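Retro notes (design track)

What went well: tokenization of the new backbones is finally stable.
What didn't: we kept losing track of which sequence belonged to which structure.
Fix going forward: every design gets posted as structure first, then sequence, in one message. First example under the new rule, 384 residues:
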């Protein structure tokens, strides 16, 4: 089980530290943490440090704090524009969006929102502050080191302006002509996801948003509540854009040793003379575009197309056929990664080519299983 997270104003230097205040009381009296147990303290902006309990003082904890770490933010920042839900579903929308990974949440006073914050400045401020508290608690629950930003109440004009500043903007709409799963998605930048109220979006709102550059997409066959749509969309985006599959910015260069890589579990089997094993281990630098515990994708140094990426398993196998025989699930995951990378690279439409050269007779030159992902130009048939 992952360590619980507690937020502090600033992560202290390594050494002794007293966790007091509301967080200290919660850790000591509610969580009843005992000497020797471990936790994480974070500043809510991505900096965190591991800590060990030395003593439970009833109203706080005495800790020994380790070295602080600052997380690199996702290359793709997802901003949820959430039309105000009514009643308790308002907090639920924020809670679920935070747990699913939203980077920013903007409350929106849509035309058909039942809940109204625009009656007075005090009401809007109270609503915003409550959303911020909810986001903070949900971040703790989901073991996030970063609390999503919660903006001030937005009008439709404000949302139109946000669309203009974003790299891409999606309107979740049950009558959208394009499914989210097949819609072009950026791999970096700012992605706006707009969610309407219980009563649906007004035609005028859709027209203004689309006029600013937003695209209406259909999330799935079911019609979701406004309070749950963000979480479902974030889950889909986590898979489709790679936010949940691999780190978006893998540091190129050597790692201290095979298996020491913080993004993977290391190589269970390897060939010290294999070029691709050395790339997987970080001994030879490469332009890594995707990485999971079991596979790595990197750009070919001699590209045969505008986009030419190699997908290889972490463990050494001589070719794709051998991988399929030894671990069919792993072999399938290589094709899944290839499709995800293709979408992230913007070559999912109109199409791409996957090549698996197996054996010297098929011109395989590196005897480590790999797929060639090629796209960005037209291809002939037969391939030759």
């Amino acid at each position: 089980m992952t360590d619980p997270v507690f937020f502090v104003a600033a992560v202290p230097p390594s050494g002794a530290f007293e966790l007091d205040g509301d967080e200290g009381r919660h850790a000591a009296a509610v969580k009843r943490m005992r000497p020797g147990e471990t936790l994480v303290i974070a500043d809510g902006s991505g900096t965190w440090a591991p800590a060990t309990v030395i003593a439970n003082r009833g109203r706080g904890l005495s800790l020994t704090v380790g070295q602080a770490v600052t997380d690199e933010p996702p290359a793709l920042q997802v901003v949820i524009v959430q039309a105000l839900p009514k009643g308790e579903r308002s907090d639920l929308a924020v809670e679920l969006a935070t747990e699913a990974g939203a980077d920013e949440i903007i409350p929106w006073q849509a035309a058909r929102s039942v809940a109204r914050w625009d009656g007075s400045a005090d009401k809007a401020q109270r609503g915003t502050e409550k959303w911020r508290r909810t986001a903070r608690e949900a971040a703790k629950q989901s073991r996030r080191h970063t609390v999503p930003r919660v903006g001030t109440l937005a009008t439709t004009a404000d949302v139109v302006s946000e669309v203009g500043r974003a790299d891409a903007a999606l309107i979740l709409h049950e009558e959208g002509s394009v499914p989210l799963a097949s819609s072009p998605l950026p791999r970096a930048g700012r992605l706006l996801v707009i969610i309407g109220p219980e009563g649906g979006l007004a035609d005028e709102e859709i027209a203004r948003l689309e006029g600013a550059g937003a695209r209406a997409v259909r999330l799935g066959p079911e019609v979701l509540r406004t309070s749950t749509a963000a979480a479902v969309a974030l889950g889909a985006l986590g898979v489709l854009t790679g936010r949940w599959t691999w780190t978006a910015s893998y540091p190129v260069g050597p790692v201290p040793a095979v298996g020491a890589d913080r993004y993977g579990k290391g190589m269970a089997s390897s060939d010290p003379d294999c070029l691709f094993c050395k790339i997987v281990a970080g001994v030879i630098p490469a332009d890594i575009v995707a990485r999971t515990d079991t596979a790595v994708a990197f750009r070919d140094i001699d590209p045969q197309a505008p986009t030419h990426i190699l997908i290889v398993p972490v463990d050494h196998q001589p070719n794709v056929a051998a991988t399929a025989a030894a671990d069919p699930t792993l072999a399938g995951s290589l094709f899944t990664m290839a499709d995800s990378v293709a979408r992230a690279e913007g070559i999912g439409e109109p199409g791409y080519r996957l090549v698996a050269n197996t054996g010297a007779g098929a011109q395989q030159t590196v005897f480590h299983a790999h797929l060639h992902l090629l796209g960005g130009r037209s291809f002939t048939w037969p391939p030759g």
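Added context from the reviewer: Residues 353 and 380 are 11 Å apart (CA to CA).
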